[in-house]
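dumping the sequnces here before i forget
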Amino acid sequence: MNRRRHDVGAILALAGCLWVGTMLAAAAPEALPGSDIAVVVNKKNPVENLSLSELRRIFRAERQFWDARSPVLLLIRTAGSREREVMLRVVYQMDEASYRKYWVGKLFRAEATSEPVAVDSNRLMNEGTQALPNVIGCEDAGDVPRDLKVVRVNGYLPGEDAYPLR
Amino acid sequence: MSSDPRRQWPALREASRSLLGAALACWIAVAGWSEAAFAQNETVQGTEAETIRALMERVEALEARIKSLEAESRARAGEVAVEPGARPKAELFQTAHELPAPAAVAVPRLQIRGFADVTWAASNERGTTNAFGLGQFNLFVTSRLSDRFSVLAETVVEADESSNQFGIELERLFLLYRMNDRLQVSFGRYHSGIGFYNTAYHHSTWLQTALGRPFLFAFEDEGGILPIHNVGVSATGSLPSGGLGLHYIAELGNGRATRTELGQSPVQNVSDENNGKSFNLALFARPSAIRGLQFGFSAYHDNRTPLGQPPIEEKIFAAHAVYQGERFEFLNEAVLVRHRFGGTILNTPGFYTQISHQLGPWRPYFRYQYINAPDREPLFPDVRRQEGPSLGVRYNINDWTALKVQYDRSFARRKAPFHSLGLQLAFAF
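..and the predicted 3d for all of it:
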């Protein structure tokens, strides 16, 4: 019993040293300057407003259907874009590596059948959202064409003070 | 303490061993700290080239996708072309309050991903030797057949510990039907929804923090006591519960055969040793107020019919409370396996707790685990009591490769305690 106490005590001491020795604070990524990021859907989509919490659920594939019949199709910009940076920081609350690992885990656990489709331009984002009524995407508010619907987030539109995606 | 210095030696020896171990750990940790910033710079440069190549591949794939979308759009425009003033056909699109049904996927889209690991392990347990080892080579395949149907297959190639010969096993294979958020059904071989670890982590050490699974959730052919795999039907979905985020799992399957020799899997893939079926019900919550928190419980039932022995009613109860944040992780699970035969009830309790914290590319972790099977346990009499702490650190070399170093101290009934050290390179590709 004494030997076990010594061993457990030593292990706890080792644990304490490891914690002290590997204290590296990872700085949160700084926000890049730019305009607000709009959440866009097809005009046929009846969604008008989403809370930030609900938006997270959708983009994290925790909610995968708009209604009983229509699966959600996620579009996101490719890595390196401001849209992606804002979405990772505000909606996903992850860095790029964690985002990739998150989707690998989601597919691995069969909690999703595919990760968001990454498009490398807002032109593609617009074309995809216009063509497919189940799409929800995100892009610079200044690039949204008139035939797409901008969804309110927490009741606010891009440009309003309390709009969160910036 | 005795005044006789000779009696003080054992205690002093123990204390000095502990201090030496602590000092060694401190030196390793500080040395590793100074390497971290340099390794991060190298990782960034290598990642840029990979990113550019990935982006070019993505552009090509998307251009092909746009052509497909344009073709669909033209086809749809041709379908909806009606005479001016005529009302559109009702089946072409719904009212403004409903979305049109999505177009069917033309061909299945198959994706293959791989996971594997290489280890080195050493132990002072009597009869063991240190060895390099190939872990499980996991080919993970998914394919979307339509917006609602998909297939998942997980094929593992691994070498047997005693014979060193490779074997192949289809660990998971199911057709998944996703009706809506409330109901998703899998038909085939799946990981049973007992507890948390079994459905959170499958056959990939890269996804796990620690070097291996808790021995409570060891695979059947590695001496595990739980029915990790099952063949049958599994349904899951969310329940209307507001911010509580309640989910359910309901499973019906063959259950497992009476525990076979180590190295043989008792999963009943094509035949069942009895007409009874196992069933499992689980409820878990993922409250939206605390993202990353999950807690729940499950209850499993099966009838086992070992040859030459009375039938055994098996019940397995599991509860878990876990938190997995971006950097901090705290996992806790407890399981009770209850076997009832004749007038006898035997209980095998077990639990583990695991804590870890991400610090840059480093993730130190600590786990303590315990399992206590009675000596008279008819199905796994060799398990007995096993417990002990594990201390380790995971270093992410890049986004897809991790190096883990883990120390274990193991205690077991009727066995001398022993130390183990393991190194593992786990990767995804």
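Residues 105 and 111 of chain A are 8 Å apart (CA to CA).
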